[in-house]
Amino acid sequence: MVKLFIKMISNKKIKKLSILSTKKGRKKEGKFLIEGYRIIRSALRNNVNIENIYISNKFKASEDFKNLNSLISENIDVAVLDEKTINKICQTVNPAGIVAACLLPDDFKITKLLTDNWIYLDKISDPGNIGTLLRTSAWFGINNVALSSKCADAFNPKVVRSAMGAHFSLNIVGNMDLFEFKKNQYCIIGADQNGPPMDDFNYNKKKWILVIGNEGHGISENSKKYIQHFLSIPSSGSGNSLNAAVAGSILIHHLISL
Q1: Positive or negative CA dihedral for 235, 237, 241, 247?
Q2: Angle formed at CA 224 by CA 255 and CA 217, multiple of 5 degrees
Q3: Which long-range contacts (CB under 8 A, 24 or more apart) does 135-138 make?
Q4: Contact at 8 Å (CB) between 177 and 54?
Q5: Dihedral of the CA atoms 234, 235, 240, 241 (nearest 10)?
Q6: In the chain, helix, strand, coil percent, each to 5?
Q7: What residues have CB less than 8 Å from 60, skipping those under 6 apart?
Q8: What percentage of the chain reaches a pLDDT higher than 70?
Q9: Contact 137, 119 (CB under 8 A)
Q10: Euclidean distance between CA atoms 33 and 183, whole angstroms
Q11: What pLDDT score was predicted for residue 5?
């Protein structure tokens, strides 16, 4: 049984937790927030480095909290806060009554992962699209995701919510340039609605990285110079285009099926 304590936290502490909604705040504190029963359960099951869990009185009495008891280790502080304080910390419109502060993952040597397939997100600005692509990557077993500069932050609260726990099983690297993959002899593939149909792609079983571009502008000129194959998704109906997350998900499934 988890040991609970009723806690009054200072305005300074609330402010420190609240700034985790910003990229600058996350970088300064070395932490990010996750909210809701399911995502916190996933984090606990994947041994994510959780520093604190904050719950409301209402959540404390719920079946969901009882289900979490066996997963929470003794080194995680669990504090009961009043609803007003929980609402100040949470970033959702209707908070679920539970929020956790997690340490950002440590940097790792990317060279150890340059034998695997990757997804590369090129200046994607919509957090929902990034979260969906992280979730799709995890689902299909593509465990490595690189983000270019000027992408939305992978630990943005909206990204974390839409990824639904995918962060906890992925290696995510920010501010990456495709040159690193060219240097390591990757097959660099770009999603482009004007490219050849994906079914015509002659895959040679070489390790690959799929580049998915910005929602409005596509793949940047800087990234295009590294791409060896552009692929499009044939349409059999109406509509002008697919959004970045949908197109990327279809291409991920296609590539792993070859």
Answers
A1: negative
A2: 90
A3: 135/162, 135/163, 135/164, 135/166, 136/245, 136/248, 136/249, 136/252, 137/166, 137/170, 137/252, 138/163, 138/166, 138/169, 138/170
A4: no
A5: -50
A6: 40, 20, 40
A7: 4, 80
A8: 96
A9: yes
A10: 36
A11: 65
Q: Which two tokens stand for residue 73?
A: 């280790």
Give the β-pairing of 98-103 and 31-35.
Answer: antiparallel
Beta-sheet strand order (sheet of 50-56): 4-6, 77-81, 50-56, 98-103, 31-35
Domain residue ranges of the chain, discontinuous segments joined by +: 4-103, 110-257
The Cα–Cα gap between 95 and 201 comes to 46
Q: Each residue of 175-206: pLDDT tens digit? A: 999 999 999 999 999 999 999 999 999 887 78
Instruction: Give the contacts of 16 (CB within 8 A, at least 6 positions apart).
Output: 29
SS3 121: strand
pLDDT at 1 (0 to 100): 60
Q: How many C-beta atoms lie closer than 10 Å to residue 21's C-beta?
A: 16
CATH of 4-103 among 3.30.1330.30, 2.40.50.1020, 3.40.630.10, 3.30.450.20: 3.30.1330.30
110-257 CATH pick, 3.30.460.10, 3.60.70.12, 3.30.720.120, 3.40.1280.10: 3.40.1280.10
* Per-chain mean pLDDT for the chain: 93
Residue that has been written with the tokens 């997100």 in this structure: 121
With 0.85 as the threshold, say if the pTM is over it: yes
Q: Token digits for 126?
A: 């919509």
Q: What percentage of the chain exceeds 90 in pLDDT?
A: 79
